[in-house]
Amino acid sequence: xxxxxxxxxxxxxxxxxxxxxxxxxxxxxxxxxxxxxxxxxxxxxxxxxxxxxxxxxxxxxxxxxxxxxxxxxxxxxxxxxxxxxxxxxxxxxxxxxxxxxxxxxxxxxxxxxxxxxxxxxxxxxxxxxxxxxxxxxxxxxxxxxxxxxxxxxxxxxxxxxxxxxxxxxxxxxxxxxxxxxxxxxxxxxxxxxxxxxxxxxxxxxxxxxxxxxxxxxxxxxxxxxxxxxxxxxxxxxxxxxxxxxxxxxxxxxxxxxxxxxxxxxxxxxxxxxxxxxxxxxxx
Length: 283
Ligand SMILES: C[C@](O)(CO)[C@H](O)COP(=O)(O)OP(=O)(O)OC[C@H]1O[C@@H](n2ccc(N)nc2=O)[C@H](O)[C@@H]1O
Ligand SMILES: Nc1ncnc2c1ncn2[C@@H]1O[C@H](COP(=O)(O)OP(=O)(O)OP(=O)(O)O)[C@@H](O)[C@H]1O
Fold this sequence. Notes:
There is one protein chain. By secondary structure, the protein is α+β, with helices and mostly antiparallel strands. The protein has 2 domains: about 5-160, Ribosomal Protein S5, domain 2 (2-Layer Sandwich), CATH 3.30.230; about 165-270, Alpha-Beta Plaits (2-Layer Sandwich). Helices cover about 30% and strands about 25% of the residues. It has 9 helices and 10 strands. Strand 3, helix 1 (about 70-80) and strand 4 form a beta-alpha-beta unit. Helix 1 (about 70-80) packs parallel to helix 2 (about 105-120) and helix 6 packs across helix 7 (about 215-225). The longest helix has 16 residues, at about 105-120. It is globular and about 55 Å long. The site of 4-diphosphocytidyl-2-C-methyl-D-erythritol has 19 residues, from strand 1, strand 2 and helix 5.
């Protein structure tokens, strides 16, 4: 009997560097970025229904049911595969929204992989990543599940294996709109493409940082605080700020000092996403 119920992790990502090379005619930006996953994320439960209905039972503040990326992913997969089954979905949401750690994109990717399994569609990763890209630029890397150097709008992926330190991630209590940052006239859009692989040291900057810190003093403050202990970086368009440490104990020590004033969490960097590790264990 095939499984009819499944609980899967939906991990966060970090952008270890992010360069903006230019703007395309459709307004999207050409990037070069390095994605790594965190062993930290949401947990989503799926239960197959035979009446074709897709129902997300967990309400999100400010996100209508049909606009939720989980529902959009399930609906598109159902339409494109011609599947007659439906699904009940519940999520334990811990990832901040608008934090630059890819929560929505990860939820969409987990849903594509989870339903491909439960609905027994037999789609391959290429098909799921192509569908995923129509939901968001960050969805394909979560579908692939391997740390990657990304180009294009984030969809041309080359797997990489950077170090896997422990990270302290600070979560300023502001939600940053990705579209707002990418439309700022002051954004750097002319970084030179890096042609050498692996990406040489000294390229770890995030081109969004000056615009984000100008608009969001809370993010600037978090970068300054964390910068007293380690190289502090911005992920995506923020708001989250992160720094690496050689051990959990060292990350915890700094966390104890900083999280009195700021919310944050400690998590291990991972080159294979915990979603893929879990799916592998099911086979
Ligand atoms: C900044 C990053 O998080 C880096 O990983 C991503 O590039 C953003 O990926 P995402 O959240 O999946 O982005 P999407 O939902 O596709 O796009 C949100 C908005 O950001 C802008 N956007 C996004 C990605 C990109 N390469 N260029 C853009 O200009 C567009 O205005 C778009 O309307
Ligand atoms: N399942 C979902 N989880 C989170 N946000 C969602 C979801 N579905 C729709 N959204 C919408 O998408 C917006 C961006 O959410 P998300 O958490 O992916 O931001 P982010 O971490 O900044 O993403 P990125 O790094 O990909 O730019 C939210 O503010 C919310 O309105």
